[in-house]
């Protein structure tokens, strides 16, 4: 007797991934089903839909030519994508089909950012900050210098007047 069609369940722990160019990303899923399942991953973006990989547990693995050297598959249904580029941004759809025909879907959104601009922005902000600090220090040094000159002038005047007074006193005698 045939066993009754068993359900297939799929969980996606991280449905949103932010990556930077040249990073490796893990599209993590976890599926469970009674029978043997077929896992298929597709990438959907503004450039169209591309089939990445399809495999049947312990049976066959079929990786698209485009992804040949960039994809690693895992028994739990997850895939690792190496060296991501801007074109890898978009939706990743996973379909797990059980041998009885029941299937379940999961989706992961991947955002890919250029790191160069962030670095330039950081350097620009740092440079502006350092320029402001040095300007403040220069002003502070200038003020210190000015007040020091004033202080020296006043002390000089004081010492001059006291010597005059001493001289006057000696004359009076």
Description:
One of its GO terms (cellular component) is plasma membrane. Keywords: Glycoprotein, Membrane, Signal, Transmembrane, Transmembrane helix. Its main location: membrane. This is VSTM5 protein. InterPro entries: CD2/SLAM_rcpt, Ig-like_dom_sf, Ig-like_fold. The chain is an alpha+beta fold and 173 residues long. The chain folds into two domains: 10-113, Sandwich (Immunoglobulin-like), CATH 2.60.40; 116-172. 34% of the residues lie in helices and 37% in strands. The chain contains one helix and eleven strands. The protein has one helix at residues 115-172, and strands at residues 8-11, 16-20, 25-27, 30-33, 37-45, 48-56, 60-63, 71-73, 79-81, 90-98, 103-113. The strands form three sheets. Strands 2-11-10-5-6-7 form a six-stranded mixed β-sheet, with no helix packed on it. The longest helix has 58 residues, at 115-172. It starts with 7 loop residues before the first strand and ends with a helix. 10% of the residues are buried. The mean pLDDT is 86.
Question: What keyword list fits this structure?
Answer:
transmembrane helix, alpha+beta, Immunoglobulin-like, three-stranded antiparallel sheet, 173 residues, Ig-like_fold, membrane, six-stranded mixed sheet
Strand-helix topology:
Elements: E1 8-11, E2 16-20, E3 25-27, E4 30-33, E5 37-45, E6 48-56, E7 60-63, E8 71-73, E9 79-81, E10 90-98, E11 103-113, H1 115-172
